[in-house]
Known about the structure:
Chain A is of the alpha/beta class and 400 residues long. Chain A is built from 16 helices and 9 strands. In chain A, β2 (111-117), α6 (123-131) and β3 form a beta-alpha-beta unit.
Amino acid sequence: MTAWTPSAQRLLTGSGPTRKEHEAIHGPLSMPPRTQLLDAVEAAGLVGRGGAGFPTARKMRTVAAGKNPVVLGNACEGEPASSKDVTLLTRHPHLVLDGLSVAAAAVGARELHLAVHAGSPALPALRAALAERSEPVTLHELPVRYTASEESALVAFVNTGTAKPLFTPPRPFEQGIGKRPTLVNNAETLAQLALIARRGPAWFREVGDREEPGTQLLTVDGTVVEVPTGSALKDVADLRDKQAVLVGGYFGTWLSAAQAREVALTHRDLRAAGGALGAGIVLTLPTGSCGVVETARVAAYLANENAGQCGPCFNGLPAIANAVRSLAVGPWDDATMTDLDRWLGVVPGRGACRHPDGAVRFVLSGLAVFADDVAGHRAGRPCAGAQAAPVLPVPSGAAA
Amino acid sequence: MNPIDCAAHGLCAELLPEWVSLDEWGYPAVDDQPLPAQLVKDAKRAAAACPTLALKLLHD
Ligand SMILES: Cc1cc2nc3c(=O)[nH]c(=O)nc-3n(C[C@H](O)[C@H](O)[C@H](O)COP(=O)(O)O)c2cc1C
Ligand code: SF4
């Protein structure tokens, strides 16, 4: 492997599943006063690690201004190709739980919730860690569905037992659990908060990008690494013999190998390249594989994962997935491309949540990056890669 | 327009065709720009006619 991984071990320093090990690594947490905490998070410039890169302090201030707020940690990690949160929770559960307490202290919440996928491999470590602590954290086990970990779906699960996205506004930070303002943060965001509360904003900004500072966890072809934000993609992934790279998971975008060699891993840089950093997922596609086939398989998975609530989503995504499938493996007819173009235009922006928008973005980037392959298939030249082993993981039991 | 409550009855497109079009599955695409004044009356009728009350007018 020629890839050089810029080392910046903060969250993943050592292994500390017990409280004693945890405190030996990071020291005990003495909670700063509330206003000092909010100022520190703002000065640190922390942006959320759950996908959208939203400034954490801004969300906190809104929630803190409301009445009787609640905090909810999102440790579901619904992206099939991501394993950063489960790694963090298994190796350093106390860091995430410290962070949940820091978030609660910052907004003045006395009710703490943590959501994980049912059957998560992190559950034993998490339960053991909770047993060593006194905070009243309610643990929720969510059904394993892609849209179940969207924040309004989590809130709906706690309120009603059904994890389906809600029509917003009101957003959870306005009206969430028990109609109270609810701060939802990703597990890694919480762990970063635990370090900021201990070491302050100046330390936090010592590494990483100026506008999106600190370190970030990435899942690169299934391996979790911690790198400074703004690291070059070519330094964290092995791009030899690769034709394309998917960045940002299944709401992300394909980049050609040439684009991938140029891009830095910040939300800003990926947006400028027409993509999204998402939750830090990087998947490389070997030259022998077929990008259209890979895109079709994930499109089918995403279509199958819709929450069945909004017409444009539960009609549009399966139609799109079927069309992409015929671009990949036939049967080809000229109407397919016309239909697909139209559907990709009418579906985005019309669901209650952003699931259809993310799925459409993913498919559009595949059609752009693999345009030559689509043209080849259309001209009757199925590519050899169609028979290659699948690269992008979709959970078993999902549509093939 | 609440896409969860919408059940594709399509009355809104009948009563407010200038502002609402239906996609091929019968679900409305609504322009969320401010309504011109002369359409407000039709829009109120469309909202009231929706069997699932999925369509609502927002006051600026
Ligand atoms: C369909 C869908 C699925 C999502 N799944 C997750 C998830 O598994 N974990 C997560 O942290 N955020 C997920 N999000 C984002 C959350 O809604 C929310 O923005 C995030 O937890 C906020 O955390 P942050 O501000 O710390 O990034 C998902 C969003 C969507 C639209
Ligand atoms: S847009 Fe799709 S996934 Fe989101 S709530 Fe509606 S049906 Fe469910």
